[in-house]
Design brief:
With 110 residues, the chain is an alpha+beta fold. The chain has one helix and five strands, in the order βββββα. The chain has one domain. 19% of the residues lie in helices and 28% in strands. A five-stranded antiparallel beta sheet has the order 1-2-3-4-5, with helices on one face. The C terminus is likely disordered.
């Protein structure tokens, strides 16, 4: 299983941790659109899915969404292997920390 750490967030859905640290082509049956959601303060959501589902030629989409505005993600990243995914998750989490720092709780921007 791949290690997942989400300081400050609440995992609301997790099928991502079922993946192994091996080639995605060896675990295609686990690759689906809804793999991970982590909720953060300030209306931020970290979402990870594989597109197209169950297709080894696809890729992970890592999005940070604010206030359910899926049309304008704060961060939109892609990855094709689990090692790359873990790197991109760190980037996404750093962006979330920056967003929370720039817009503290109680700010009318949320």
């Amino acid at each position: 299983m791949i290690p997942l750490k989400f300081a400050g967030g609440t995992i609301t859905h997790d099928d991502l941790s079922l993946l192994q640290e091996c080639a995605v082509s060896e675990q295609v049956d686990l690759l689906k659109e809804d793999m991970l959601q982590v909720e953060y303060a300030g209306g931020l959501l970290l979402d990870v899915g594989w597109y197209p589902e169950f297709d080894a030629a696809g890729g992970f989409r890592i999005n940070v969404i604010r206030n359910c505005d899926w049309g304008r993600p704060v961060v939109a990243l892609t990855a094709h292997e689990t090692a790359e995914l873990l790197e991109k998750l760190d980037i996404a989490q750093n962006a979330i920390k920056g967003e929370l720092h720039n817009f503290p709780l109680g700010n009318s921007a949320f």
